Amino acid sequence: MHPKNVYKNGVSFAQLAKEYPGLGKCLKGTSSIDFHDPESIRQLAKALLKKEFNLDIDLPEDRLCPGVPNRLNYILWLNDLLLDTHKERSSPGPPKVTGIDIGTGASAIYPLLGCAQFPNWNFFATDIDSKSLSSATANIAQNGLEDRITLLDVSSSSTILPEEEITSYPQPIDFTMCNPPFYTSINDMLSSAKKKAVPPLSACTGSTTEMVTDGGEVTFVNRMVEQSLKLREKIRWYTSMLGKRSSVEKVVEKLKENGVGNYVVGEFVQGAKTKRWAVGWSFGDRRAGDHISRQPTSHLLKSHLPFPTTFKIPLPIDANLSTLLPQVEELMKKSCADFPNETFEWSSVQLPYFATMYGAVENLYSNGKGVTSGNTWARAARRRRKKLEKDAEEGRVSEVPQEPKFGFAAGIFIGSSGPTPTAAKGTLSAQEEKKGHDEDQDMVDETDAWDNDFISLPASSMEPEASKGSYILLRWTIGLDHVVWESFCGMLRRKVLEGLAEMKT
Ligand code: SAH
């Protein structure tokens, strides 16, 4: 469950039932409800949305009833992703965020939740089902959100993403999101329900258009990937939820086959039994932190996660901190001044990269950030610069190749207790989603071993030994080529550790 999810500690049904008589009627005993009863889960969704978000929704009996905690997890993860990879702001204040919800359903749950949670969010929302569309229209209207949510009937469209709206929008759209139809056929849906010994569709109340699509979720999302290859940076982050772990593998394969290396994999845990995943990809060069992009803990997904964007340089344990830390700071600044930067600053203000990675960062000593034009520290780059200088001296005009931007941040952390990753995993919440959606339950928590020195958070818990000492964390913030990033990490580690060794002698 996302640390900011209001439902992370569960919900008291007894209390909620007292406040919302509709749910009161559905109470089983004094403190529970029947998750197999469609009316009960509908009333639960209504009560939860009203209490926390002041949202009023009506749901047709024959349409999917959204599990609120899970839908909120996706919205919060998306917000983390946008903040961690934010675009430059042209005006002060929170920038307007525009997203597209593909297949919004009868509830229009994602646009409603997104708008209720974030006052600067706006949506386009699509669907192909006329009954769902009219119900969504009513839900948007009764919450007064018509000016922030634009509903699109795409039933006659041949593409999944609404191309006309995207290409005519005056700026890039911030994200797309989707909870795709999961199953390849009604048989697939029924057999999957049977496997879990849940009466088929008992509490799901999904109609066939909602639950079934040709080729299932993989085909649906792969069609979005295909379309994104054409739309590229018209959308900053394309994302979709996925209900099966195997689908994550297939969609990631598809992205890699098409050379899309900037992708993220989220994992949403609702209650003790249900896991969902989200895959996001971008044609832009902003990199998300590992705490957002490498969330799955299962070793089965390990090879499908994106290249880590965090690198740790442990500092000598035996050193006196009051001399070590200023020395390290000096070495970092000096090392970064040695190669050409477009921008480089070392600051006493905590950078968001480190704040979002650990929640509270009391043990951050200091941090800095910079942007270069490609790899400017390599020997080849130095030789190239020398040659350019010589050419200039001798009056020859030579072409300066445009290098792609590379961005980094660095933080020096004071050891002893070490930071604790924030994302609480596997906490039990009272209202689990018990729908036909929970295919492929994968609750084996494998604590990832350290990936060389690249760390994946929060999957890898800090090793007790390593956390005793102080360390530098490097964060990759901009760029498409992980070889440049790896070279950067190697270079800084060598410079700092050699520098410290020299100071000692
Ligand atoms: N977003 C809602 C509903 C998800 S069910 C929720 O999370 O609860 C999937 C939805 O996708 C259904 O409403 C279905 O009608 C819609 N859908 C199926 N194919 C679609 C397509 N090609 N374009 C847009 N929506 C589609």
TrEMBL record:
Source species: Orbilia javanica
Any GO BP: rRNA base methylation
Keyword vocabulary terms for this entry: Methyltransferase, Transferase
Protein name as catalogued: U6 small nuclear RNA (adenine-(43)-N(6))-methyltransferase
Transmembrane stretches, start-end: none
Superkingdom assignment: Eukaryota
Cellular component GO terms held in the UniProt record: nucleus
Molecular function terms, GO-annotated: methyltransferase activity
Annotated stretches, region: Disordered: 420-441
PANTHER family from the UniProt entry: RNA N6-ADENOSINE-METHYLTRANSFERASE METTL16, SAM-DEPENDENT METHYLTRANSFERASE
